[in-house]
Amino acid sequence: GDREAGEMGLAAVPGRQAAFRQGLATAVQYAKAVGCPRLHLMAGRVPLGADRAAVAGEMETTFIENLRYAAGLLAQEDMIGLVEPINNRITDPRYYLNTPHQAAAILEKVGRPNLKLQLDLFHCQIMDGNLSRNLETYFPLIGHIQIAQVPGRHEPDSPGELNFPYIFELLESLGYAGYVGCEYAPKGDTVEGLGWLRSYWESRGLQHGGTSKA
């Protein structure tokens, strides 16, 4: 969408279907060029001046229509579409898709196997908490995980609410084999800020690079 006009994705925004399809086609070309098989299909914001509850039904209908279209296009390219709940308490008060429960209900209505949940644990903790149970409940839908400490949105080992070594071990026990995206703002130098990862590898008996010493 038009970021300067305050748009943040278009998939659930009524009246912007043509622009969504155009943007999707462009995104697919970029994804093919860099070999990225997964695309985040951003829902977008509740229109300015609109009451969230009053437009929720129309926005869901638009979202489902656009997601089905996207699933068909992405299937031709052997790609996965992702939807991400973004908290509306701190990060974006007007964002339409806010909780894993809402996302799961929409994905069920869309009914396409190549659409998955992009679960950002920062947003999930702020909106719902209960991360262990939510990871277990929504694990079959998860296509990508993102992390950041709460509330500062910095490195996982920065001061905050979340015990990431426990969360990583839980993901391993569940059989998660995908990427974990570091969607945080480093407190300082990016490379130095990755010390948490080296420490985690060492605690798990791994060398720097994730390979076992054994």
TrEMBL record:
Q: Which residues form a coiled coil?
A: none
UniProt keywords, alphabetically? Isomerase
InterPro entries in the cross-refs: Sugar_Epim/Isomerase, Xyl_isomerase-like_sf, Xyl_isomerase-like_TIM-brl
Q: Which domain of life is it from?
A: Eukaryota
Keyword Zinc-finger present in the record's keywords: the answer is: no
In the record, what terms sit under GO molecular function?
hydroxypyruvate isomerase activity
Q: Cross-referenced Pfam families, in alphabetical order?
A: AP_endonuc_2
Q: Which ranges carry the Xylose isomerase-like TIM barrel domain?
A: 9-199
PANTHER family xref list: HYDROXYPYRUVATE ISOMERASE-RELATED, ISOMERASE
- The protein in question is named HYI isomerase
Identify the species of origin: Sagittarius serpentarius (Secretary bird)
